[in-house]
Amino acid sequence: MISIISAAVQHIEEIRKIAFKTWPITFGKILSEAQIEYMLNMMYSQEALMRQMEDQRHCFLLGVENGRYLGYVSYELHYQDEAITKIHKIYVLPEAQGKGVGKVLLSKVEAEAMLHGDQKLALNVNKYNEAVYFYNKMGFECVGTEDIDIGSGFLMEDKIMEKKLATVE
Predict the structure, then answer these.
(1) Strand partners of residue 149
(2) What is the pTM assigned to this prediction?
(3) How many whole angstroms separate alpha carbon 104 and alpha carbon 111?
């Protein structure tokens, strides 16, 4: 059974392990090796993750089964002071994909968003990432695209996806 725990500073190395194992497989056919390395160093250095965790708006969760960390999600409630929960990161180890880890993580974020009064979930995903199909299955719709300059001549070419949350009448 997959359980969800709140991640803290002591879990940074576990998050890094999942990212560094998952990214080359997820993005190997989409991005250059140089861009993967650049983005991992930019977003997943000890310092970058520490800053994100210290930022009170960023929440990290880990999916765990039998003491093994299988995936994580990072999200922000009330993104840009709107009734939106923004999912910044969600990755599941390649060997754990298909076990429901991503679904459990997303369900937990959705529950937290609704508990805090947000009306939508939002995320960006590389437009060539096969995860687009997973997000569609989970109720997300593509609402636009954007190219984000991340420096060093690299772009993130993303689909913007949103899911409307049920509201209590």
Answers:
(1) 155
(2) 0.93
(3) 11
